[in-house]
Amino acid sequence: MKILMLTSYLPYPLFSGGQIRTYNLLKNLVAKHEITLFSFIRQEEEREHIKKLEKFCFKVKVFKRRPAWDLRNILLAGFSPFPFVMISTYLSWTVRQAIRKELEEFNYDLIHAEPFYMMPNIPKTKIPILLVEQTIEYLVYKKFVDNFPNPFFKTGMYFDVVKLKFWEERYWRKATSLVAMSKEDKFIMQKAAPKQTIDIVANGVDTEFFDKAKVCKPKIPTILFVGNFKWLPNKDAAKFLTHELWPLIKQKIPEAKLWIVGKNPTPDILELARKKDVFVQSNIKDIRTAFSQASVLLAPIRNGRGTKYKVLEAMASKLPVVTTPLGIEGIGAINGKQVLIARKADGLVDKTVKILQNPKLGQNISQSSYKLIKEKYNWQLISSSLDKIYKKLGVSSSLIN
User: Fold this and answer.
1) Given Cys at both, which of 20, 76, 126, 278 links 88, Cβ 3.0 to 4.6 Å?
2) What superfamily in CATH does domain 2-204+379-400 come from?
3) Cα dihedral sign for 381, 383, 386, 390?
4) How far apart are CA 230 and CA 312, in angstroms?
């Protein structure tokens, strides 16, 4: 099939969950489909990564995204129904015209858009559109606004949440078919778009890559947190862990240390290293090093839907995981067998301490979770699920034409 894929980011280098997902899907679908990739970039330097993607794509085109605080975005949000968050930043006449020209010159079977705020750039077409939602954006932004400290700006920000919700749900209904990351996300999307077909294509992990890591367990009990700090839920989780969970853990295991690893740490994340035995590292070359040198991954996720790569990668690295129900969403792991789950701070602390004090328990959980990942969450299996959806929509496209 001939597919036009539209993404809000270039799927390389592999710094974020979205990049990891799209890159691995392209890698595993190259033999089955001819995929043309249109992506936004933020910096001109990103163009050097195009060659890496051309190995898996028939063609790659990139477009410079306007800065978030560009005056055009502000005016568009202020004098149109579009929200400032997401849509205004990614709405581009240049991209829309490029897509129109591409569709007129070449016969495509399917458009794959990811995420929803790429949809306004698609001109009117009879070609089936598959919209893939890695998370439900308006819920993420609403949580951020709920916790925003300045009441002066909150009213305007809530108005933006309302607009964001309106457009996200509208495009769910407008797409030909939808893909969600988890049953929980599918339930929310189905309520807003009851007539839609919604499939679940979970995130995966490159099990062969993580199998090659050399395990070197630390002598000092080491708690690991991993995340790209451009993503608001990761910032929230890291602060929650450091300010509320860490002091309680230190009371029970004084010799423990906390290792926070991730790209794009903001000043408030770097400030966390001022706490005793807390280390923040942004320049780690190989994430496998972090997983192999930690005792447990603690992921106290309180916001952001969709499958968490940090959890999948930890499991693939045979590292035991303690997390929240939201942190394990989209992964069919059993509490007490393949993961330890708690909703509140005291439960997360107790389960983390239990892992640190009982290495045998950690070993049993990590072995069981590793088996689960190998059997159900490898990219070959995930890409096969997406391939079936492509083919199903391709059949409907041929019937229309």
Assistant:
1) 76
2) Glycogen Phosphorylase B; (3.40.50.2000)
3) negative
4) 20
Q: Is 14 helix (H, G, I), strand (E, B) or coil?
A: coil
Contact of 6 with 122, CB cutoff 8 Å: yes
The CATH class given to the 207-376 domain equals alpha beta
Which segments within 173-320 are labelled E, that is strand? 177-180, 198-200, 222-226, 257-261, 278-281, 296-299
The dihedral sign for the CA sequence 258, 262, 268, 271: positive
Q: Which two tokens stand for residue 302?
A: 């309180």
- The residues, any chain, with a CB within 8 Å of residue 12's CB and separated by 6 or more, are 19, 23, 49, 52, 53
Distance CA(29)–CA(2), nearest Å, equals 12
State the Cα angle at 308 between 209 and 110, rounded to 5°: 85
Domain ranges for the chain, please list them: 2-204+379-400, 207-376
pLDDT tens for the chain, 401 residues long, are 999 999 999 999 988 888 999 999 999 999 999 999 999 999 999 999 999 999 999 999 999 998 878 888 888 877 788 888 788 889 999 999 999 999 999 999 999 999 999 999 999 999 999 999 998 999 988 988 988 888 888 888 899 999 999 999 999 999 999 999 989 899 999 999 999 999 999 889 998 889 887 777 788 999 999 998 988 889 999 999 999 999 999 999 999 999 999 988 999 999 999 999 999 999 888 899 999 999 999 999 998 766 688 999 999 999 999 999 989 988 989 999 999 999 999 999 999 999 999 999 999 999 999 999 999 999 999 999 999 999 999 865 555 55
C-beta separation of 362 from 355 below 8 A:
yes
Smallest CA-to-CA distance from 28 within 40, 38, 39, 20 is with 20
Judge contact between 2 and 109, C-beta under 8 A: yes
Entry pTM = 0.85
Determine contact, residues 322/297, Cβ cutoff 8 Å.
yes
